[in-house]
Amino acid sequence: MGKAMRNSLKWLLSSLVASQVGAFYIPGWSVKSYKENEHIPLLVNKVYSDNTQLQYAYYDLPFVCPPTGKSHGPGLFSGQSISLNLGEVLRGDRIMTSDIDLTMGQDKECSFMCNQEVTRRDLRRAKELVKEGYVVEWIVDNLPGATSFVTVDKSRKYYAAGFKLGFTDYSANTGKPRYFLNNHHTIVIRYRSAPGRAGEKGGKVVVGFEVYTKSVGTNVKRENGCPADLRDVDDHFELYMAPNKTTEFQSQYSHSSYYPEAIEEGDDDDTISIPYSYSVYFREDESVEWNRRWDLYFVNSEEGSRIHWLAIVNSLIICGLLTGIVLMILAKTIRSDIKGYKEGSIEDGKLRIKRKGNRSPKSEKTGFGLLEKEGDADKDVDISSDEEALEDVTGWKLLHADVFRKPEYGYLLAPLVGSGMQLLFMAIGLVLLSAIGILNPSFRGGFLSAGVGLFVFAGVFSGYYSARVYKTFDGTDFVKNAIVTACLFPGLLFGLVFILNLFVWAQASSTAIPFGTLIGIVLLWLGIQVPLVYLGSWYGFVRTGAWEHPTKTASIPRQVPNQAWYAKSIQSILLAGLVPFAVIFIELLFVFQSLWQDKSGYYYMFGFLSVVCLILILTIAEVTVVTIYIQLCSENYHWWWQSFLVGGGSAVWVFLYCVWYYFANLHISGFVSSLLFFTYSFIACCVYGLLTGTVGFLTAYAFVRRIYG
């Protein structure tokens, strides 16, 4: 046992080292190179904010320059929608070609785009978005436009994806906010020679895309629509339109943006012109390799790595303590109980088994296994009374005739276990594909697309395990069980998403899933996943069958005595759930920060995440074994549902952590955004609970079979 434990620790430590090497990133399947004077498409996507969950397509904004349909080459014109995969649509991307002209190697000091006429209502809309801190996402060669920063010691440069739509300033006299729009964009494209033969032929590859914004007011001197001197702009474009009110008010608040709210709202037919312009500069940068161009977006990786190592050490300590407890239970407690029961029963002359030869071909079964008296010659050992033999038995050994009694509502537990296996397969596939670099930031929407594909394909495993558990519980109608399995969790998920969509549609946000995509998801569900679940159910129910139990179940159930407070259902679930939560809560901080606080960033620590997930599975298995053993020792044989709930108990703590995180770290405003946060958190916790609950259920079943077999 100790040798096996040492080998396990060696393997785990080696996997930790491998996670550092394995968490690399495959930047793409091919390198796109550009020749001198070749056009480079600039794509516009969306605007988003860390203070809200609502995103908007860039060209849906009423105050930006609309596409003119300008041609950028054969089959490419501005305003053209780019084909998106399922993951991009689900994450709210709406990518279109822009009017901005980028030509490899050609700088443009200033180019005028348009004078966009906006109404007072459009101006208020722009003011709301700037106030909420929205940033813009443009794309060049699959790189998001970035705001460039320098570390405090000025030793390194790093990127933050996206650039600000505008900014807020406060008056030194009144302290009231004033909102300004960034209407001039300086684009810096960093390039280097292409690798291989393309570079020998003069090809260039893009290794950086930076956007610097500036707010230029209407009073700035202009030439051909562009500011005469971009380096000296002292007048910014304020999102303010003078109210169309009486002369008295106009003179009272002249040259001020602090009109009373009732005065600021004038006629919505009033318009103001917003001038837009841009500059382009190409700069050669041989210091950045093309396959390392995403590293600037991950500048905090070194600091994050240290915290991840601390998290893993914390998880290993917890898992190690649990491993010691489980080994003690398996190696000492249970074996000593069985041995003591054997020896005590034989010495008292209560068990006598007839033997022929060195080993008996058939032995009498008791509640916890095969009991036989050792001997070499033919010996007759009579059994005087099984009931008398069991009088001295206490604890878990008393439950041999009830421990495998089918649970109440087993027809519901079986589909939950099947759905958990489906999600477990999906999660393992996603973590592995991300850890080896196949799913990476350059594969836009790849994580969600792969997740949907793996989930649909894993319907086979869902049906198989659900059918076997269902038949083990003496179920007879496997078709009904297959339908429940295929529709229970996916139906709940689709229903919640559809209801959320109604709220998001009302906000005209790109976060809403288009109706056509919803129809496609339904077809994937009903046309592919449901048949796969049925196929797996048929194979598991008809061809494989139920699991055979090592003991028989009595006709009359035992009465369960009163349980200690810590062994009761709810208390044990909450207490046991704390341990797995302690293993993952540091990693949760990084995941939450990536999802909710830095939606422009990318979670990239999948090597660490894979190790933490492995430790989490081991921890859940060990916690479930300890909890179920304590329950059996309390003569409570209702462990089927308990094992599933104990395994998924940490989902309760994860959801409570979501609630705390919302109030402590987020600044989300608006009912719809809050609804999105809590609904998505609830769905994520359901997924996590089903997954971990299934791990606990299967572990507990294997443990119970082991000790009673």
Protein model, in words:
Strands 2, 3, 4, 7, 8 and 11 form a six-stranded antiparallel β-sheet that branches. A four-stranded mixed β-sheet has the order 6-18-14-15. It has 18 helices and 20 strands. The longest helix is centred in the middle third of the chain and has 47 residues, at 301-347. A hairpin with a 7-residue loop joins strand 2 (42-48) and strand 3. The protein folds into four domains: 39-299, no CATH class; 300-335 and 568-709, no CATH class; 351-384, no CATH class; 408-548, no CATH class. With 709 residues, it is α+β, with helices and mostly antiparallel strands. The chain has helices spanning 2-22, 86-90, 120-131, 197-200, 247-252, 261-264, 301-347, 386-389, 410-435, 446-457, 459-472, 478-506, 515-544, 569-597, 606-633, 640-647, 650-665, 671-708, and strands spanning 39-40, 42-48, 56-57, 96-97, 102-103, 108-119, 135-140, 143-144, 146-150, 157-161, 163-164, 166-170, 177-181, 184-193, 204-214, 222-223, 226-227, 271-284, 365-366, 369-370. Helix 7 packs parallel to helix 15 (606-633), helix 9 runs antiparallel to helix 10 (446-457) and helix 16 packs across helix 18.
